[in-house]
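Q: How would the structure tokens look for this protein?
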Amino acid sequence: MKKGLLIVGMIVVLIGGFLIGSYNGLASSRENIASAQADIDTMLQRRADLIPNLVSTVKSFAAHETEVYDAVLEARTQLMNASTMQDKADADAALDAALTQLNVVVEAYPELKSDTTYVGLMDELAGSENRISTARKDYNDVVRSYNQRIVTFPTSILANMFGFTKADYFEAAAGAATTPDVGALLGK
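A: Here is the predicted structure in token form.
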């Protein structure tokens, strides 16, 4: 009788240990996603902080291009106000498109391209773009790992019981892979 109770007790402890370990693993994975998302937000904020200075620098050489400046600043505002990962991806794509238009303006002003302030800002912006790319990849890696955990048996049962749901990937907006027609941007 004692032996039977001991075996039942060990089974209960093993199952309890598995449940606790699985829950803690899922909770930890969810926190890793939040941390990776915060990293993306930090990098997007860093880039967004550079945008007003870049616009001001370009504006000092080409004050009449107000439509382009307004588009860049509006896209920056949308990015800063985005809440979901999909909204951030869409706003990020809109900012990239607006910055492409700004670069077209810059091409018309060779003296601007040699301005030290402009060159420094562009270097900072390029560094930010690289950091954002790395942060997106890291985020998507963490999401993939988490999503795999919540659909894999037997953890999927526990995930469903405690409301763990799939996380969204940071995906490029539709058409992001399309190269912009620079001729059209220049009006040619």
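Confidence is low (pLDDT under 50) at residues 179-188.

Helices lie at 2-61, 66-81, 85-107, 110-113, 116-151, 155-161, 182-186.

Upvote if useful.
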